[in-house]
Design brief:
mainly alpha, three-stranded parallel beta sheet, 5 strands, about 5% strand, binds adenosine-5'-tetraphosphate
């Protein structure tokens, strides 16, 4: 069975972009692959964060993942910082990556990379992400389109490390969904929906009540003209709504467009479709949130399973790069 790994930052409320771009694929992948999913809390330190909120957001993000359908009886769900192999492998990969490669990461630039006062972690976190993936020998990494460049870096580092130090890592493949791989902000449809960069009106949370979803969809920025056509470059707002409709109800956004003669008709259908799509998530979340001890137990079990796999890979990599192994190996 092939391996899958992916993760989400506990940097804010989980939104529709996370759900359609990544989590839905994770839910189906867990039945087809040996699947590892993690809440990447160390990544959330790369930007300004509130220490009083990080732990509760981590638990809440894990709860959301179970609410969208991750089933701990068929996948491994864990918190990144509970598996110390992640930062340990990162150093080896930082000594494999180059300054120039990291400077070219567009997410680094978008999140303020040119600013002298940004955290050094914002610069290096794509390497931590590479460690997240390579530790699990993952062949497949289901993510949104925004992660394409980071995955390409992971592949480059794996290939370079293997070349210099001998076959150590599996070189992973990217898996992005056909529809809604990049969900756009409803207020600024030229930029992606984001936990940290979007306004509340531009973002639909997976737990938003139906009236909020309806309000946000009806207030969504549309484009000049009145024709409903799928043209992401010239009509990003309307195209985003068509993508959301296609992702929720099935179908092709291009083919759905001729069925509409007005923006308001389209918005009504998008709103209804999203309310129905997210209804079961809200319902499951209510049950899970009533028993946080259960989610914590799932995470403890997940960390133990993840550590067993990550430890073996770390040991292999430490030896391959030439470090003196302690008695019993590196992973103890
Ligand atoms: N707008 C999006 N459309 C499609 N997929 C998306 N993802 C994120 N935004 C969109 C995918 O969700 C997964 C988890 O993302 P993340 O939380 O780890 O980080 P991110 O990509 O940086 O997402 P955000 O929401 O923009 O977070 P912040 O604001 O904290 O940086 C990934 O697979 C991602 O592709």
């Amino acid at each position: 069975m092939s391996r899958v790994l992916s993760g989400v930052q506990p940097s804010g409320d989980v939104h529709l972009g996370n759900y359609l771009g990544a989590f839905r694929t994770w839910v189906s992948d867990q039945h087809r692959h040996e699947a590892f999913f993690c809440v990447v809390d160390l990544h959330a330190l790369a930007q300004e964060h509130d220490p009083a909120l990080l732990a509760s957001r981590t638990l809440e993000t894990a709860t959301n993942l179970m609410a969208v359908g991750l089933d701990p009886s068929v996948c491994t769900l864990f918190v990144q910082s509970h598996v110390p192999e992640h930062p340990r492998l990162t150093w080896l990969l930082e000594c494999t990556a180059t300054f120039g490669e990291l400077r070219r990461m567009t997410q680094f630039k978008e999140k303020g990379g040119e600013n002298e006062s940004v955290r050094a972690g914002l610069f290096t976190y794509p390497v931590l992400q590479a460690a997240d993936i390579l530790l699990y020998d993952a062949q497949r990494v289901p993510v949104g389109e925004d992660q394409r460049q980071h995955l390409e870096l992971t592949r480059t580092l794996a290939i370079r490390f293997n070349h210099h130090y001998g076959e150590t890592f599996v070189v992973p493949e990217l898996a992005v969904p056909e529809v809604a791989a990049r969900v756009m902000d409803l207020q600024e449809p030229a930029r992606k929906m984001s936990k940290s960069l979007s306004s509340p009106l531009g973002t639909i949370g997976v737990l938003d009540p139906p009236e909020d979803i309806d309000h946000k969809v009806r207030r969504a920025v549309t484009d000049a003209g009145t024709a409903v056509v799928y043209e992401p470059l010239t009509k990003p707002g309307v195209s985003n709504l068509l993508e959301l409709l296609a992702a929720a109800n099935g179908g092709d956004p291009k083919e759905l467009a001729p069925g509409y003669t007005s923006y308001s008709q389209l918005k009504r259908d998008v709103s209804e479709a999203l309310v129905e799509l997210l209804r079961p998530v809200r319902e499951r979340h209510l049950e899970l949130a009533a028993d946080p001890g259960h989610v914590e137990a799932v995470l403890a079990n997940g960390a133990a399973k993840a550590s067993a796999v990550a430890g073996a890979t770390l040991d292999r990599a430490m030896r391959a790069i030439g470090l003196l192994a302690p008695r019993g190996g590196f992973s103890v």
